[in-house]
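Reopening closed ticket. The problem is back. First fold of the pair:
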Amino acid sequence: MIATSEPAGRSPALGRGEALVLLGALGALVAVNLPELGSDPWPFRPPPAEPRGLLGPLVRASGGEWGPGLLRAGAALAGLLVAVVAALVLSLGRLRRSLAVTTAAVVVGLLVVPGVALQVGLREATAPWFHDNDSTYQIEIAGELVRSGESPYGHDYSRSGLERFYSLDGSVSPGTRTGQVALRHFAYFPGTPLTAGAWGVLPAPLDDYRVLVALMSLAALPAALLFRGPLGPRLALGAGLAASPLAVRAAWFGTADAPAVLAVVLAFGLLMRRRHVGAAIVLAIAVLLKQFAVVAVPFFATALLWRARRRSLVWAGVAFAAVLTVGFAPFLIAGAGALIADTIAYGGGTYRIIGYGLAGMLLEAGAIDDRFGPYPFTILALLVWLPLTAWLVRIQLGSPAVWTAAAGFAASILVLLFIGRVFQTSYLVWPLAASLLAGLLALSENSPLPAEETVPDEGSGTAGRSDEASAADAYPDPLRGRA
């Protein structure tokens, strides 16, 4: 098992300073989330809601309509809880560890869960093309195709029900079936339809894919405990991963980055625990879930070079390749061209220009005439992003510090998103998560694993040492001297 407990003899409570750091971070999350909760939803014009099922009482409490009232009331309760616990800390001068964990969990839950529950309930009370995002709806349809033995790539979605989303009132607008390019492409790597296929067997309304996304968002908080370091800062960073405004909005609005983001965080956490093969497997799952996770691979690999022996490196590489092969193979066999066209060519050159990245700026400046016109993403990636990423990886090769790998990942993914054809605000969850991950890694590296909790280097056949000893002492140059 992976040891996540603190050393024997630890204090049963957080000191005043550490507790106030945690509560300050939780209070800041409440403050930045509260004014934005529930804002800017899709302007659907659904029929009157008919509350039913598990979430029927919540739908009735909302008046059968989407609104920020219930969501912001939950956030206000979270803020009140933070204030009460802060008063307790100021009075007693400490905060019990169990209460610190409980407070963080409740605050994160009150920020993430209400919006998802209300959206899912309203969708169940109307129709599947209301109170959802088109990407999440298409992911669910793709999951149905997987369960029936069909490939979601190259599939025609124009009569799947998804076409009713775009009118916002459930009708099929003239030209939608022929003019909406999203109806002819599925933009996600195979891990997403595979997880949707499995999740979709649950009874309604739990089969809504956003429920899985919300659970993965919530799981980022305990995932932070996989790293070492003072509990207060770890909980603060974990709460930031789980309940940043980007993560909270993604959960109810329907952008499905959380599972892949969580997998990247877990991969680095397992790396710090010297579970190299497990870390490689989890990183491969992240890649299967979202293309953006590919950017983390070279930074993870350079960190692994510093911390693993040759045998572990080989097994980690084999495991990573095996998971990707198993995930991609069925869809490549079913139609490699369709998979490539949907997941790579579509986002890079087919979809319309969106957002205020470089492409949007050039469009606004008149340098590009049409949102559907040509844009030199491939050239920019080769001339700008690839050299920058290579330079950042080269820096990481010269440093045993793993937190710099996460920082390099944050810089690389931000530049890639900026020069892309599509720059959705939701994409910023990736550089934000990588930055918070860098903080967790820095904490972990400054808190070596106690001798009684060390584990052997997988595949090395030798007793494990602390991570820092393994990296800095055993391999002063990661490219030489492998035993």
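Second fold of the pair, where the issue appears:
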Amino acid sequence: MSNEYLRIGEAEITLSSDRGYSVVIPIALRRRGARKAVILPNGEGWAPTSWNDAPTPLQLTLARGTRWIDRLASGEVDSITALSKLEGVERATMSRCLTLTTLAPEVVHAILEETLPPELTLMELSTGTPMDWQEQRKRFLKR
């Protein structure tokens, strides 16, 4: 190593004064529900581990929205307002959850498989969401 400094791709390796090595690898941390994802400089991200089968907050929100839409569709309750009172949930929160039930099947699959871009949030998925599934695919899956 010349000049006590070496660069390999995005990584920097330097020789410290105590003759040890210091390695600097630029990464970005992104929130993914309750989890944090490490994103490498080349854009590669974290893959879910098979041992962690606890549902993510986004998966739980999708499940809640699906359960609530079923209650509305069955006639058990006649409005979102009535359902929000019954469930003890703010109407706006319930509306965001219900919006997830209108997502394209590929987007729902990405939620369930934890393969959505890690920077996508519930707010992005539920605010101003186009009804056209092709537009949803472009907006949410092609980042």
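Update: turned out to be a display glitch only; the data is intact. The chain has two domains: 1-41, 56-138. Residues 1-41 form one domain. Please close again.
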